Structures are given as C-alpha cells and as structure tokens.
C-alpha cells in the first residue's frame, strides 16, 4: 500500500480509476504549500521550517512530500480532487493557485473549519466546498442553512437522522473513512449517501461495481 499524501498513492488511485483523490494541504514557514497530514514532521512544526527542510526530513524517512502544484498537474484531466485545508487564512491564495491549473468542476475545497469554507464561498461562490466533521453536534443549523455543497461526516456518527437532516437541507453526503466492505455496501446502497472516503479504493470500486451489476 502506498503512503498517504504521496504522488505514488495518487497515481495508484488514477490507475484504479477512482473518482477522486483526497489530500491535505499545509503551509510551510517559507509560505509554500505542501501535501502533508500532520502539523509536525520529525517533531518540527511545518509552519516553522522551509519546504526544503520538510523534504529533506521526509527523504531521510523514505518518502517525498509533494507541493500543491505537483499534485494539481498530476491529476489534471485524469481524476477529481478533494483538497482539504488543514489550516485557516490562505483560502484566497489557494483558490487562485488551483484555478491556474484546474477547472472548478474538477475539485472540491474541504475543511474541518467552517470559517474556511465560508471564506472560500465569499471569495468565489462557484467553487464546490465540503464541511468535514467528526461529532454530530458540529452539524449545526447554520451549517445546514449555509451554502456549503457537501457534508463529510465521520463514519462513526452517520445515522438515519443525520442523513435525513442533510437531505432536507439539500446537501450531498460523503462518509469518511470507510474501509470495511460490508459497511461500504450498506452506505453505497443508501440513496441518501453520495460517496465515501476509503483507504481501500480497489475494494470500494469492486463493491460499487457489484452493486451496479445487481441493479
């Protein structure tokens, strides 16, 4: 299995013909955008070190940390992107950079921060957004009434009530992170669920293929 947030993992998803790639964006101390999940690498905060230092550390650990543009160019015309902003404050710059490479229909901007999603929509309302959450209480009336396009709940909180609330609000739903094939099937069979996130793209595509064949 390829390491998450690497070009190898993204290429594998492309080869499998997955619908989309999800990845995490952080900004380094020299204002470069890198694809990395954690706040720290080798116990050093990314916001305090340069992109070069991040990559040097990663190289000693046996992997490459890509910059945003590397992934955009790899994916262009080949697969959709869900671009998760792990921090707040650079939404406008992010959209400008992405729009230089990709058409809007090819990506979603997502975040755990409702403020980030709001700022994306304020700057460019046509960009599709997704609000990520792991607690049911995070799905507030303001979120449901707002103009985010997608809701991304954790698998552990998905219930009929949550799905009904999302449907009534006109939101699309994709559930994270679903790696069990039985749960994949149950969710994919639910008309209120529009997609799921998984570390097992090949298994999920097989489950979906069997579901489509049985229709």
In words, what does this structure look like?
The chain is α/β, with parallel strands linked by helices and 215 residues long. Strand 1 and strand 2 (33-35) form a beta hairpin. The protein has helices at residues 7-16, 51-60, 68-75, 91-99, 114-123, 141-145, 160-168, 181-188, 201-214, and strands at 20-27, 33-35, 40-41, 44-45, 80-85, 107-111, 128-133, 150-153, 172-175, 195-196. Helix 1 runs parallel beside helix 3. The protein starts with 6 loop residues before the first helix and ends with a helix.
Low-confidence stretches: none
> In one word, what is the shape?
globular
Task: Classify the beta-strand content into a percent band.
Answer: 15-25%
The ordered string of helix (H) and strand (E) elements is HEEEEHHEHEHEHEHEHEH
CATH superfamily of the largest domain: Phosphatidylinositol (PI) phosphodiesterase
- Proportion of helical residues: 25-40%
Structural class by SSE content: alpha/beta
The tally of structural domains comes to 2
């Amino acid at each position: 299995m390829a390491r998450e947030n690497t070009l190898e993992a993204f290429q594998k998803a492309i080869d499998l013909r997955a619908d989309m790639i999800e990845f995490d964006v952080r900004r380094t101390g020299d204002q470069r955008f890198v694809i990395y999940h954690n706040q720290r690498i080798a116990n050093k905060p990314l916001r305090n070190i340069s992109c070069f230092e991040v990559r040097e550390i990663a190289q000693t650990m046996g992997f490459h940390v890509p910059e945003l543009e590397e992934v955009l160019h790899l994916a262009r015309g080949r697969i959709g992107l869900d671009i998760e902003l792990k921090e707040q404050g650079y939404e406008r710059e992010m959209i400008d950079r992405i729009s230089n490479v990709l058409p809007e229909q090819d990506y979603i901007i997502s975040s755990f921060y409702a403020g980030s999603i709001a700022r994306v929509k304020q700057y460019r309302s046509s960009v599709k957004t997704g609000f990520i959450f792991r607690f049911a209480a995070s799905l507030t009336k303001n979120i449901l009434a707002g103009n985010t396009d997608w809701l991304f709940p954790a698998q552990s909180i998905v219930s009929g009530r949550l799905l009904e609330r999302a449907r009534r609000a006109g939101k699309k739903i994709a559930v994270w992170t679903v790696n069990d094939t039985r749960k994949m099937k149950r969710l994919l069979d639910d008309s209120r669920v529009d997609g799921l996130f998984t570390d097992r793209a090949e298994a999920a595509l097989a489950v979906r293929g069997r579901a489509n064949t049985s229709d």
